[in-house]
Every structure is written in C-alpha cells, then in structure tokens.
Amino acid sequence: MVQGCENVRPAVRRAPHVSYRLTDPETMLQQVGTLAVFGFGSHVQGSDDPRWLGVDLEALQSRAPLELWQVEGPVIHGRTGDVQWSSGEGWLFAAVTLDEAAHGGPRDTAASAYAQLCGFVASRRERHVQRIWNYLADINQGEGDTERYKQFCEGRAQGMGSFFEDGFPAATAIGHHASAARLQVYLLACDEPGGRVENPRQVSAWRYPRQYGRIPPSFARAMTLPAGDALAISGTAAVVGHASAHEDDLPAQLDETLVNLEALLASAGMPTGFDAQSPLKAYVRHAADASAAHDFLQRHLPGVPLLLLHGDICRSELLVEIDGWRYA
Ligand code: 3EB
C-alpha cells in the first residue's frame, strides 16, 4: 500500500513521569523537565513557583513524600488570572485554587474554577484534558440535592459548558478538612487526545440515576494517555453498578476497589497488577483507618508506591477511594 503524507502521524507524546519522592520543592523545581510538584497538608513548606501546588489534604504518613510530574524537556510556566500553569513537551499542568468565601459556595466556586480552566486550556495547543483532580471542603455536608458534592457537580457542569462534549476526562473529587473552604482543581492536558476507558463493572458516572443528584458526575473511569504508555486512573471506590457496596466495611471496600482497579486495567488493555512504577493514592475517610488501609494495600500491592491522604469520599458510606497511574 502506498503511504501518502496524510498517513504521517504527529509525534506521540510520551507520558509524564509521575513519582513520589522524599525531597524538598526547591530541589525538584530546579530540575529541567519538572512540570509540577505537589505537597500534601498544611505543614509543607511551599514555593511561589506556579509549578508548585500545596494540596489541602493531610498526609496520613509520618514522612510524606512530594508528588512529581516530569517531562523530557524544558518547561515554561506562568499565571493567567487565577490559573497557575506550566507546559513542556506537549504537556500542560494547570491549577486553580479559589476561596469559597469570595465566590459564593461550592456551586458558584466550581463554575468559576471550571470556566477559568476551560477558557485557559482552550487558548492552548495542549487542549486535550486527560485528567482532573478536585479537592473541596466538607464534601458530604448537606442533605439530598443540597449536599455540597452535588452542588459542586452542578457548578462543574455549568463551568465546563460544552468544552467536554466529546467526552469527559478521568477525575477525582475528594473532600478536605482544611480550615479555609478552598476549592482546588488541577489538571493534566496534552496536545494529542487520550482514550477514555470505562469499567464494565460500573455504570458510567455521567449515566448515574437521579438519586445521585440532578447533574451526574462528569468523569471517565480512566484515560489512556496519547502514546498508550500510561493509564490515568480516576478515583475508584467500592461502587458496583451504580450502588455503593459493603457500607462501612473497610476491608470489604478495599477488596472491591482492587477488583474495580483490575477491571479497569483489563478494560484498557493494560497488563494486570500494579508495580513499583505505578504510584497510587488512597484517600481514607477516617484517620483511624490509615494503618489498616496501609497494611492491606502493602499486602495486596507489594512494592507499589502509596500515598495515604485524609480525605472524604463523595458518598458518605464510602470509607476509601484509590486513584493513580499504571505505566505500560
Ligand atoms: C464514584 O465511583 C465515586 O465527581 O469527579 C470518583 C471519581 C467519584 C471522580 C468526580 C467522583 C468523581 O462515583 C466518586
């Protein structure tokens, strides 16, 4: 077959390297190729660099590492309105941290954060959002449709507008316990599209029935990055079909969550299991469950880099949620 020039594919972007490391922000920010550095909790020493983000979730480990995103080339960075960002090698990190006190509650704050982020990404070559994280205060406060998570979902959908009409990125939404009611939203985007992945054991979140809110959550279960060399895994919990399983039973929820993670790997065509290159985060509702969760995960996922964070899952009956990366 004759290959015309229309068959020439653009360079496929290798996945950023995501890792956890016991180091300080400045050391990492000085390195060529550092796209973003994350610290967890109120005691972490920060930086004014737009690539630094201090996350409002406390680590449940005595020596908590930083999370690093690294690409294989030079990185530029800046601030545009409330957006802090960096880019290099076809990848884009962008983040917004908004205080609800200045934006009027979880719905309007989410709408503003998403409008700003989507507007910024639309102005960039790296317009294909692969993965989003959302951290908001008191996520389970309020009843029924007024629960803060459900208000957040409504504001998120409003702020996104039609930006994700071809499909949602992978995502995490977790509640924090910081003193200020801040909403933090950050994302990873690329100049090439990824591939959305769903979990055959779970109803797709955007098709959740009415009982979970007026506006269903806007996320895909996972995203295969453009080169197919990594899977970005959304917040994954003990949800089967659309229902929560094993109410208030930590080991059973952890078991079910690991079954869901394996189902996602299979659905994405990834090898089974997780390894030393595949960092995971476990968000644990009750700090008292941290050591049980840590022991369980070390036993079932030996050698896997783990970061345990104190966070509330968006359904009050869920005690734990896991997200992270699987490299091919
Ligand atoms: C679930 O499976 C658990 O609203 O962005 C997981 C990942 C969950 C992302 C989001 C919510 C979100 O429905 C909750």
User: Strand count, sense and closure of the main sheet?
Assistant: 7 strands, mixed
Shape: globular
Total number of distinct structural domains: 1
Distance N to C terminus: 31 Å
> In the CATH hierarchy, what is the architecture at level 2?
2-Layer Sandwich
Defining key terms:
globular, 7-stranded mixed β-sheet, alpha+beta, 328 residues, 6 helices, binds 3-(2-carboxyethyl)benzoic acid, 60s Ribosomal Protein L30, Chain: A
Describe the SSE topology.
Elements: E1 17-21, H1 25-29, E2 34-40, E3 52-55, E4 58-59, E5 66-70, E6 76-80, E7 83-88, E8 91-99, H2 100-103, H3 105-122, E9 128-137, H4 148-160, E10 170-176, E11 182-190, E12 195-197, E13 222-224, E14 230-236, E15 239-240, E16 243-244, H5 250-268, E17 280-284, H6 290-300, E18 306-310, E19 312-313, E20 320-327
Parallel strand pairs: 2-3, 9-10, 17-18
Antiparallel strand pairs: 1-5, 2-5, 4-18, 6-7, 7-8, 8-11, 9-11, 10-19, 12-13, 13-14, 14-20, 15-16, 17-20
The structure holds 3-(2-carboxyethyl)benzoic acid.
